[in-house]
Amino acid sequence: MKETTKSIFEGLFARYPALEACRTDIASAYDILCASYRAGGKLLVCGNGGSASDADHIVGELLKKFKRHRDIPSAVRTALAAQGEEGAALAAQLEGSLPAVSLSAQGAILTAFANDVGWEPAFAQQVLGLGRPGDVLLAISTSGNSRNCVAAARVARACGLKVVSLTGEGGGCLASLADAAVRVPARETYQVQESHLPIYHALCAMLEEELF
Fold first, then answer.
1. Per residue in 184-196, pLDDT tens?
2. Segment holding 43, helix H or strand E
3. Cα–chain-centroid distance for residue 189?
4. Alpha helix locations (H) across 64-121?
5. What does the alpha-carbon distance between residue 34 and residue 149 come to, in Å, rounded to a whole number?
6. Mean pLDDT, the chain, as a whole number?
7. Helix or strand or coil: residue 146?
8. Is residue 94 very low, low, confident or very high in pLDDT (cuts 50, 70, 90)?
9. CA separation for the pair 208, 185 (Å, rounded)
10. Do 16 and 108 touch, CB atoms closer than 8 A?
11. Is the per-residue pLDDT at 90 higher than 90?
């Protein structure tokens, strides 16, 4: 881990001392995510309600610049430049990206599968279709017991994905299925969600610093 990445990590606990209880698990989550991206993997994220919004938020931070400039792959820049002025201008507008998909945002497949089969396995179906060995599933649930997130984690493990969970302090069923279970020290839903945001912001910033 670079010194600048460590600084972001330590800054999280300086600003939010209560999260010290999660230090080891947050570090493990970062290691899993970083290793996956270095190997060409991607991140799948799922959650319900406010956690669905968090899933979308995380993907938005990863697919484009978060805090610093990101170069696009040189091969892509060269290929666009070969298309002339318009291609070169487009290349200048693009930002380096970390592949991530919010399963919560896929309205067509979610509603189709929920209508035809059921809501509980709807995220799991997406993991089956999109997940590949070496990818990571981030399952966000304040209780840790959201059935559709638990089903997604089960399928992720069966398909060779790593699982990171982001929950309240109990951890619920997701804790036993996760390779890194981040359990924030709160039980009230809104308080759990308030703690989730600085954690995933720190993880996104750390990944950007390390990989770009």
1. 999 999 999 999 9
2. strand 43-46
3. 20
4. 74-81, 85-93, 107-116
5. 22
6. 97
7. coil
8. very high
9. 27
10. no
11. yes
Question: In this model, does residue 59 exceed pLDDT 90?
Answer: yes
CA atoms within a 13 Å half-sphere pointing along the CA-CB vector of 14? 7
Work out the burial of residue 193: count CB atoms within 10 Å of its CB; fewer than 13 is exposed, 13-18 middle, 19 or more buried.
buried
Residues in the chain, how many?
212
Dump pLDDT digits (tens) for 36-57.
999 999 999 999 999 999 999 9
Nearest to 55 by CA among 104, 115, 112: 104
Task: For residue 103, give every residue at least 6 positions away whose Cβ sits within 8 Å of its Cβ, in sequence order, or none.
Answer: 44, 45, 46, 55, 110, 123, 126, 127, 130, 152
CB–CB of 211/193 below 8 Å? Answer: no
CB 56, CB 105: distance < 8 Å: yes
Sequence letter at residue 150: V
Q: Are 30 and 2 in contact (CB under 8 A)?
A: no
> Can you tell me the distance from the alpha carbon of 1 to that of 207, in angstroms, rounded to the nearest whole number?
10
Average pLDDT estimate for 18-47: 98
Whose structure tokens read 């997940």? 131
Q: Kindly write down the DSSP assignment for every residue of 152-207, as one continuous string.
A: HHHHHHHTT-EEEEEE-TT-HHHHHH-SEEEE-S--SHHHHHHHHHHHHHHHHHHH
Please report the pLDDT score of residue 87 as a whole number.
Answer: 97
Confidence at residue 1, expressed as pLDDT on a 0 to 100 scale: 83
How large is the average pLDDT for residues 47-68?
97
